[in-house]
Amino acid sequence: MTSEDGTASRGERQKGLPSPTSLRPLLPRIRPHAGALALAGVCLMLSAVAGLAFPQVVRYLMDAAFVEKDGVLLDRIALGLLGLFGAQALLNFAQVYLLSSTAERVIAKLREDLFANLVRLSPGFFTERRTGELTSRLSSDVTMLQSVLSHQLSEFARQTLYLFGGITLLLLTHTQLTVTTLMVIPFIVGAAWWFGRALRRASTGVQDKIAEAMGTADEAFAQIRTVQSFTREAEETRRYGLHLVDVVAAAIRRSLIRGAFFGFITFAAFGGVVAVLWQGGRLVLAGTMTAGSVVSFLLYAMTVAAAVGSLASLFGSYQEAVGAAVRVFELLTAVPTVGEPASPTPLPKKLRGEVMLEHVSFTYSPSLPDVVHDLSLTIAPGEVVALVGPSGAGKTTVASLIPRFWDVTGGRITLDGIDIRQLVLADLRGSIGIVPQEPALFSGTVRENIAYAREATDAEVDAAARAAHATEFIERLALGMDTRVGERGVKLSGGQRQRLAIARVFLKDPAIVILDEATSSLDSESERLVGEAMEDLLRGRSTLIIAHRLSTVRRADRVVVIDRGNLVEEGSHLELLAEDGVYARLYRGQYLEVG
Q: What is the CATH number of domain 355-594?
């Protein structure tokens, strides 16, 4: 069970989290590309060998110039160096291309899987997560993982080869100088470990602050008409600015840690180079080493120092990526609290459409009172039932329990005698058509919005539009069915959006229809047009109407009144007026308001 206050959602999010210190969950996604990665690894190793050969070639070049004074040998060695660099360039090109293309494929699949998992999560998950925060996870956090796969892993392998290869060649060149060179490494490794942990915490803080800022911006954009109608642009800008202040503060803290880290690494690495230069110079003066040998050793020492510094830097970046990975895989491994049955019951091919609520109770959280309490209700096949009650009575909650957006906490709901928890969610929800108070339109065309119900031909879409009495206004649009409606359908009126929502349900052709206050925000003329469409839609279908405007109730066969989650009255419109109870009070209050 999930809750609007997020109690169960927090539990879902934490299930199956990856280790906070590894990127191991990425391995199954990388494994299918093992061939390309192996080839990239071979190119990387050959490139590293070419890089490690460079100081030896320089040694011979220097000795040819200063010891042997052989111009022909000098020319040959110089040409050999050009060939070496050319081969290394080709190897680097192949390695970078293979890794980058592989990373793009892996990350694209990761984004797709992450999005696919998010859209399957229970609605309760989204009640505590803002859209901007989720899109931030899809963008910035996944991009950080992309950097690891496309660049940092190859650099880690390259610098590791340089480190161990360089140390080996240093030992072969001069043992005493090697000891001097390696004395600095323990300090760098210790600093990398200490600073890396701090950098990971700081980077996680930055990403969290960015996600909060994105959430605020997304919320303002989604409610831009409300923002502007209340002239709250300056306030929204101030709120966003406060989040940016937090982002900057967290980023500055991260920059301080990163700056101190690199400053220490730079000093330690070049301090080691100075020590090698000093000791090597004394060996040359003593005649135990040639200038070429000292230069070669120095290049190897700088290679080792650069490798240690790069590995330390990569460790810091790795810690940042681990923080991003935890957040990404937290969402990727989250599971819906409204799950599929272990052994589903098949839905009959021909549904009668009987819906029964048997002693149903529901609460959004164990710490909160029941929103619905011991409610029993039957909707007979083809019957239209209106659910009426004051605001907060639990009407919309009841409508959400039938398609299992939430699961009941007591009792059960059946469809044609089958407990809906035993049905595959796609079968259950595929048999229900919902027309909400605020229709959920997408930014595509009119045709695309109607066809969202299912795969359909143009003729079927046109027929659904006619059935919903939407053809009349669609034909007046500039491009007709191909007119783009704008984000959330902002280019259409409320009545037009509602008729498109009804057309979508016509195209779906469900056995059960739920109308959630579908005309409550419309003017009289729009309500009349939508009402005509609804009359055709409800014919022969089991229907639950969540009604706020009681004029809608008159098309119902039966009226059920709930108050504080309890069924308090039931009967026809006239019968309930005669009882002079809750329904009569609501009706008179609304009638007087209209009058």
A: 3.40.50.300
